[in-house]
Amino acid sequence: MSKHEILALIHKIANYGKENLILPTAMKYILKSPTTEKEFNDYYQLRFEILRAPWGQEKGSEKDELENQSFHAMIIDEEQSILAAGRLHYNNNKEAQVRYMCVKEEFQNLGLGKMILQTLEEKALSDQKKTIVLNARETISDFYLKNGYKKIANAPTLFGTIKHIKMKKNI
Ligand SMILES: CC(C)(COP(=O)(O)OP(=O)(O)OC[C@H]1O[C@@H](n2cnc3c(N)ncnc32)[C@H](O)[C@@H]1OP(=O)(O)O)[C@@H](O)C(=O)NCCC(=O)NCCS
After folding, report:
1. Pocket of ligand 1, beta carbon within 6 A
2. Which 8-state DSSP code applies to residue 94?
3. What is the domain partition of the chain in residue ranges?
């Protein structure tokens, strides 16, 4: 376990039950787009570990055909370890879509997901998009509700079990 994983765990235990957890102040992190081969490998690996492997999906299922045309955001710590990731692509001139939001397990509920989502939203806004849509896992739709998204429809069930809800935010 890295120094930051230990710090994050201590912080979570000390604050157990309290709302609005934020990162331990001793923790440094960098918010960026992946650029190097290592960063892209880590970025896709985190997606795989958090969003695909627990459901028995194969390596490769963490990517789609839009990767080259997408905006990618990641958070790394000062030891270059990846903590969080998320992707934005454009469906048309007005609409952006968020996909593959994921935070390393030990670092969930510390505000990192919100930071990634805000970065994706700022990018969409700077490219003159008017709305953002996403298909949220039903179990985490509250995360998106807290970030200003509204439920607009049921979305396809993934891997036969994970119910999704289509959500939308005007930006
Ligand atoms: C969902 C996920 C991206 C959220 O990122 P995070 O860093 O854990 O969330 P944050 O700490 O930024 O939380 C922001 C707010 O959303 C809430 N929240 C976070 N995860 C939540 C969940 N699973 N259910 C309900 N609320 C949640 C937090 O309590 C926080 O609320 P507050 O602002 O009132 O304190 C992350 O937990 C994750 O990767 N989960 C597993 C993978 C997954 O389901 N990805 C989404 C696919 S659609």
Report:
1. 19-20, 50-51, 101-103, 108-114, 136-137, 140, 142-143, 146
2. S
3. 3-170
Cβ atoms 165, 154 nearer than 8 A: yes
CATH architecture observed for domain 3-170: 3-Layer(aba) Sandwich (3.40)
- Which residue has a Cα nearest atom 39 of ligand 1? 102
What pLDDT digit, counting tens, does each position of 61-102 carry?
Answer: 999 999 999 999 999 998 899 999 999 999 999 999 999 999
| C-alpha dist (Å) from residue 80 to 10, 20, 45, 104, 164 | 21, 26, 14, 14, 32
pLDDT for the residue numbered 155: 80
Res. 110: pLDDT tops 70: yes
